[in-house]
Specification:
Blueprint (H helix, E strand, L loop, with lengths): L12 E2 L16 E3 L5 E3 L2 E10 L1 H10 L3 E2 L5 H9 L7 E6 L8 E2 L24 E8 L2 E8 L5 E8 L1 E2 L1
């Protein structure tokens, strides 16, 4: 089975001349792009889905776009994401605890690193809350992660690797 992704509008960036990116593009690949309505950062593209879905449906939606729910690898990446978010809703990310044993797993199999986590204080808080949202708490005024039941409906954040040309 073949699949096809259409890019109606492309915005290219010459990676060899850009500043501020910590990751180098693949050898011989100086130009990168993201699909329309996706935001570029480092070597990835990010998309906010405004449709309210449960966690499983959110991951299926990202997968249909050749992406996954957001996997956060660095503080810089988390900071980029929250600079682009509306503070009212919550967004599913790609972290879950399928067995309810606090064995957190990323959807792309990236190892869970406790030193790169952004849990709100007193989170995670419930063994029956096995999926994770990124949301804004008004007291204190900060973004962070919260464990929630996977059947709750939230917006979601998708992530894919940039396309290099």
């Amino acid at each position: 089975m073949t699949s096809e992704t259409t890019y109606a509008e492309l915005s290219f960036k010459n990676e060899s001349k850009s500043s501020g990116t910590k990751e180098r593009p693949p050898a011989g690949k100086d130009w990168s792009c993201c699909p329309k309505d996706w935001k570029p950062f480092s070597s990835n593209c990010y998309f906010t889905s405004n449709t309210m879905r449960n966690w499983t449906e959110s991951e299926k939606n990202c997968s249909a776009m050749k992406a996954h729910l957001l996997v956060v690898n660095t503080k810089d990446e988390q900071d980029f994401i929250i600079r682009n978010m509306d503070t009212s809703p919550a967004y599913y990310i790609g972290l879950s605890d399928p067995k309810g044993k606090r064995d957190w797993q990323w959807v792309d199999q990236t190892p869970y690193n406790e030193s790169v986590t952004f849990w709100h204080s007193r989170e995670p808080s419930n063994l029956n809350e096995r999926c994770v949202i990124l949301h804004f708490r008004h007291r204190p005024r900060e973004w962070g992660w919260n464990d929630v039941p996977c059947n709750e409906h939230h917006k979601s954040l998708c992530k894919m690797t940039k396309i290099y040309l």
